[in-house]
Amino acid sequence: MARHPNSHGAQTRSTIVRAAADLASVEGLDGLSIGRLAGELAMSKSGLFAHFGSKEDLQLAAIEEARQRYVRQVITPALAAGSGITRLHALCEAFLSYVERGVFPGGCFFASAMAEFDAKAPGPVRDRIAECQQQWMTTLERAARDARAQGQLPAGSDPRQLAFELEGALLTANWYFHLYADPGYLSRARRAVQARLAGEATAAGRRALRPAPQTGQAGAAGDLATQREQ
Amino acid sequence: MARHPNSHGAQTRSTIVRAAADLASVEGLDGLSIGRLAGELAMSKSGLFAHFGSKEDLQLAAIEEARQRYVRQVITPALAAGSGITRLHALCEAFLSYVERGVFPGGCFFASAMAEFDAKAPGPVRDRIAECQQQWMTTLERAARDARAQGQLPAGSDPRQLAFELEGALLTANWYFHLYADPGYLSRARRAVQARLAGEATAAGRRALRPAPQTGQAGAAGDLATQREQ
Known about the structure:
By secondary structure, chain A is mainly alpha-helical. The first copy, chain A, contains 10 helices and no strands. Chain A has helices spanning 7-27, 34-41, 45-51, 55-80, 84-100, 109-117, 124-149, 159-179, 184-200, 203-208.
């Protein structure tokens, strides 16, 4: 999609897509007009058009930027934290940490995008958002499945159901934290995740769930909070 | 706000706000331009302006219409279903039924509105959405508190935490049901609600939770599904 293969052009494009992803997390992907973004970046509309031929191209580039940021900020550190139930807990904590640190100014980019497009007609933007959400749910589900295979969750455990319920705590924390500017909702989500995992885990699973730090607010991957976006 | 106190004017205004609330559930409250709505209703923009002087007036009227519809479709039937844990379960089921029946074409109006405005600057529209969400959470919390007072939940139960976790299942069902057009997510939410309530309930609480019908999909207030919007 980059029409400027030289390094200056690539750098400009990268600046634009980062700003676009940030703006979309607050104003929505439909609020992402080329004119508006040009204003924010003090660029001409024609300069922006040289990089993105259409609003849809810009939206898809913003989604790709957001996906890469999400992988760096949530997925990669959590996958490094361990396997099975430890990983599942780390994925949840990495998500809450990413919301808390304001990796996107408007909260989770994908939560906003899903809420914006869930009821709209199919199209490339909506399809891409649905794929990204599916990848996230599959990542949670796979960790739950591994935990079951490792005997950390009982044989009758339903990995998709568990992923769905954990996602509920995470999404709700994202919305309410921003709506009421109240970090107490992040603590509620941490309690919910911990209780849900401990409640279903076998004795081996409970041993694998590292105890929360003394604040009672940070979970297994609390140290992720130090891994800030550059 | 109605500038046409006569009955024809009131009827026109009512038609406009119903259409506005429906449209906003799909396109967002910011997508609710007077021009667009005029096009949908085959009215002139000036005719619409006679009822709503500004976009903000129209947005606030759509929220009030949505609030009343929510009360009729979710709150009132659930409050009639009983008290304590029965009511708490009925509130959750009434919400899921309201999503399932498509009371708003774009899914829960307030979930969409919260997602759209959670990270935006304060203002009358955002404030009103935050108040409505707070009323809903307080309704859930009060039912949980009553359940605790009635001995259906243990003395150490945290009504706000329980309300938060139930809300997580409901919101997530709303988004995923629409994103993937898959009613299985409503079933997952019903399972989550039932398990969460039964898991925390005392023996008296579990007796008060009516058993789910044979499908395993409808909860205490499954008969709400027959109470359709006229």
